[in-house]
Amino acid sequence: MLTLALPKGRLAMESAEILLSKAWLSALPPEDSKELTYTSPDNRLRLLFVRSQDVCTYVEEGAADAGIVGWDIIKEGKFDLIAPIDLKIGACRLSLASFPDFDLFAKRSKVRVATKYPELTKEYFFSKGISCEVIKLYGSIELAPIVGLSDCIVDLVSTGGTLKANGLKEIEVILESTARLICNRSAFYSKQNELGTLIESLEN
Question: 2-90+178-203 falls under which CATH superfamily?
Answer without folding.
Answer: Periplasmic binding protein-like II (3.40.190.10)
